[in-house]
């Protein structure tokens, strides 16, 4: 049975993955909500959510995908967590879907899985430099300034099993996750054409 791991944290962005979560519910695909610790986390919208399990309990072999939503700014200490980085690298090594949106790709950068891959991130490069991310790590990145120039045509970037997007592409990002997992996606339910 297919299962999806969803990671939440303080100030996670709920709206960015709500369409993906609804699509999973419509297809009866269970999700497990993880946090660094098994505790309550408040989204940037103010929604209080419970992590069902801690990162220590995440067994990569039990999941088909890991979803990483955005957060409020470039400074995100969880991205430096060695356990999270290891989990992301395991998903990558097993070619399981890694889907990150908005600032979420920071976690993929810090885990080292975006080298030689094109990707989107909703943060300006200058802000990421201040967080210790190098220009080499951002070589193939489209930052927020690049992305908004292609707002009408570019909603996500897929590189094999890794999918990145920014906030304005959250619906298309969700549909592509469904396509990657061979699920029915229901685009008209979310205001998109087939």
TrEMBL record:
All residue ranges annotated as the DJ-1/PfpI domain in the record: 2-135
GO cellular component, one term: cytoplasm
SUPFAM superfamilies registered for this protein in UniProt: Class I glutamine amidotransferase-like (SSF52317)
A Pfam family that the UniProt record links to this protein: DJ-1_PfpI
InterPro entries referenced in this protein's UniProt entry, alphabetically: Class_I_gatase-like, DJ-1/PfpI, Prot/Nucl_acid_deglycase
Protein name: 4-methyl-5(B-hydroxyethyl)-thiazole monophosphate biosynthesis protein
Protein's organism: Copranaerobaculum intestinale
